[in-house]
């Protein structure tokens, strides 16, 4: 099971740099059979130093609990209130008076999300969407709160058509009568486009066209990167491609200066039989890499260096949500505050790793080709400088005597000795990172319970073939055969990069 130490989920950026630096926020859904009280929720946020949240409503008790915390709050107009607000300036003014003016400045409300994916979920409300935004904004102006609080509406990325290559993307033309005035409103009020970005669904719906590593932000060799033939921009992950598609779609309507915030993004940690990639390891990988990617302020290929602040979906697993198993399992925490998994955030810039024990391991992928595993195993125990003596017959990690078990040990030993540097757990795609300790019996894996391997230069990701195997036995036994790496590997294979 996943390591369940307390997460030190430090996702803050300073208030002084919030305008120029990207931040990570968290969505807080409430479809739980045992929903924590507002004070318990705020206690968790404070314990994890989460400084940006999005609520799906404007619950009074929650807003009162957030008072004097400094946490930046995006509140929402639920879809079932949209028609009333969009048709009546007075209704909008009353909503702002009750849900905003009554709480600021004690509660730090910084944005209002009007509706949620209205054009795709509630299309009959589309014609009043812009009116609702304008009425809400007018009420903020009257209360002298318009400089502090931005107004926008979150869209599903599915409103973007022909999204790859990104340079060809455009919004669904049938919604131009809404999108054009909406973008004009965002531009005139200094607000931003809110977009929900879910690479999990893009991956699931691609029928194998989108590689899992591309969806999870895992490192790709240059020849595997997606290239926009029109701009020659290289894309290493689905997230950036969708964000840039939104930028290009806005440009298609002649709007080029509207910033973008991703209001929802994440990966489910559990799924049903048709959702085999909804796993704890993949959720951990996606969210850890997403956090690191956003906070590095790298931007996107189209807009490098321009912040794309993002809210993770979501704080809690929601057991009452209808639909598939995955719908209930997007959370970082269970209702009792115990983390579903421990994010591995080492090296995430200004954010301290919430994985204080750094308990991540590198293991062989399920279903990996055994010949590829054998080749990678030989490389790790040869030029990779891994001490594979524990795999010899009679040693603690000899059993179980198969290539999957032995390669898992070798892969993890290399990953640990390379200080878990990015790209050191791939081995031509047959390895993956996990938070589950693969140690068994007397076979204690490097990195388990703080027993990290020797840290070596993290830039030396692919030792060359002439590297000696210092500290590593060149021969080891598995499957009853004596395996000699120098016999199995030709010179070409010895120089191949398995990372």
TrEMBL record:
Signal peptide: 1-18
Pfam families: Glyco_hydro_17 (PF00332), X8 (PF07983)
Record GO terms (molecular function): glucan endo-1,3-beta-D-glucosidase activity
TM regions (residue ranges): none
GO BP annotations listed: carbohydrate metabolic process; defense response
SUPFAM superfamilies, alphabetized: (Trans)glycosidases (SSF51445)
Documented EC number(s): 3.2.1.39
Catalytic reaction(s) noted: Hydrolysis of (1->3)-beta-D-glucosidic linkages in (1->3)-beta-D-glucans
Main localization, broad class: membrane
Keywords: Cell membrane, Disulfide bond, Glycoprotein, Glycosidase, GPI-anchor, Hydrolase, Lipoprotein, Membrane, Plant defense, Signal
Organism superkingdom: Eukaryota
GO CC terms in record: plasma membrane; plasmodesma; side of membrane
PANTHER family recorded: GLUCAN ENDO-1,3-BETA-GLUCOSIDASE BG1-RELATED-RELATED
Name of the protein in question: glucan endo-1,3-beta-D-glucosidase
Organism: Citrus clementina
């Amino acid at each position: 099971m996943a390591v369940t130490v307390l997460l030190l989920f430090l996702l803050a950026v300073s208030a002084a740099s919030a305008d120029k630096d990207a931040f990570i926020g968290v969505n807080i859904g409430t479809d739980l059979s045992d929903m924590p009280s507002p004070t318990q929720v705020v206690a968790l946020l404070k314990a994890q130093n989460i400084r940006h949240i999005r609520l799906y409503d404007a619950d009074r008790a929650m807003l009162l609990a957030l008072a004097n915390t400094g946490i930046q709050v995006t509140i929402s107009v639920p879809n079932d209130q949209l028609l009333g607000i969009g048709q009546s300036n007075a209704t909008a003014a009353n909503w702002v008076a009750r849900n905003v003016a009554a709480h600021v400045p004690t509660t730090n409300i910084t944005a209002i999300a009007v509706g949620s994916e209205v054009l795709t979920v509630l299309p009959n409300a589309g014609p009043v969407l812009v009116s609702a935004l304008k009425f809400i904004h007018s009420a903020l102006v009257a209360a002298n709160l318009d400089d502090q609080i931005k107004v926008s509406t979150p869209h599903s990325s599915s409103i973007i058509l022909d999204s790859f290559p990104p340079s060809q993307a455009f919004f669904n033309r049938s919604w131009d009568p809404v999108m054009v005035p909406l973008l004009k409103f965002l531009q005139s009020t200094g607000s931003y486009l809110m977009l929900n970005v879910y690479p999990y669904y893009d991956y699931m719906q691609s029928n194998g066209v989108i590689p899992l590593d591309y969806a999870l932000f895992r490192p790709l060799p240059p020849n595997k990167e997606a290239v926009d033939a029109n701009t020659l921009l290289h894309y290493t992950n689905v997230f950036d491609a969708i964000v840039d598609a939104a930028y290009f779609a806005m440009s298609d309507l002649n709007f080029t200066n509207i910033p973008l915030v991703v209001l929802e993004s994440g990966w489910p940690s559990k799924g049903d039989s048709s959702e085999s990639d909804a796993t704890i390891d993949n959720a951990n990988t996606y969210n850890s890499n997403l956090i690191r990617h956003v906070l590095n302020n790298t931007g996107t290929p189209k807009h490098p260096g321009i912040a794309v602040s993002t809210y993770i979906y979501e704080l809690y697993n929601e057991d009452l949500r209808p639909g598939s198993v995955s719908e209930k399992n997007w959370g970082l925490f269970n209702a009792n505050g115990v983390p579903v998994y421990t994010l591995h955030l080492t090296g995430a810039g200004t954010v301290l790793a919430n994985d204080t024990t750094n308990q991540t391991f590198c293991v062989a992928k399920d279903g990996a080709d055994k010949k590829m595993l054998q080749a990678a195993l030989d490389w790790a125990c040869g030029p990779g400088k891994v001490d594979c003596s524990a795999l010899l017959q009679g040693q603690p990690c000899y059993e179980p005597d198969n290539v999957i078990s032995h390669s898992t040990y070798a892969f993890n030993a290399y990953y640990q000795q390379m200080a878990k540097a990015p790209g050191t757990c791939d081995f031509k795609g047959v390895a993956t990172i996990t938070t589950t300790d693969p140690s068994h019996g007397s076979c204690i894996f490097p990195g388990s319970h703080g027993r990290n391997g020797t840290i070596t230069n993290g830039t030396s990701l692919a030792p060359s073939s002439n590297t000696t195997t210092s500290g590593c036995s060149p021969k080891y036994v598995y499957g009853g055969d004596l395996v000699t790496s120098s016999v199995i590997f030709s010179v070409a294979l010895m120089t191949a990069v398995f990372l």
